[in-house]
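User: I'm writing a tutorial on reading structure tokens. Could you give me a worked example: one chain, its sequence, then its tokens, then a sentence or two explaining what the tokens reveal?
Assistant: Sure. Here is the example chain.
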Amino acid sequence: MKSKNSYTVDLSDQWYESLKQCCGSFTSTQIALWLVEAGLTKSTTTLPAVAAHVRAAMSPDKPDYFKASELIVIMRRSGSLAPVNFILAQLGCAAAVRESISSETLVRLSNHRKSLESELVMVTQKLSALNDEDHACDVPMQLFSQ
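And here are its predicted structure tokens:
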């Protein structure tokens, strides 16, 4: 069996520390429930089995890992970006920062949505009127006086 060099061991330790920062204040059952609710498990898999997967993926002594989709759900639900920030740091990138939307922006977006909804109603009515006009043309028309 190959022995791990100190760089690999250090990376592994840092990775599991980032998982601990992200998940440490939640139980494996809580995290398992997030994964089940997100539809990331087979319908036949029990909650205790998913919780066992979570515990194994959190342990450096077990050969189990989180899938990217699982990490996304976990980071969203926990509110922690520690795992992705660990990866970004290893790639020489700046840490991820959640974008916050100001209340003014939310109001502006809401008003814009209402405007678009009104415009959609108007366009739908115009299309309906055009459709009615098209059917009105089913009656033979006299183009020139005869």
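What the tokens reveal: The CA atoms of residues 22 and 78 lie 6 Å apart. The mean pLDDT is 86.
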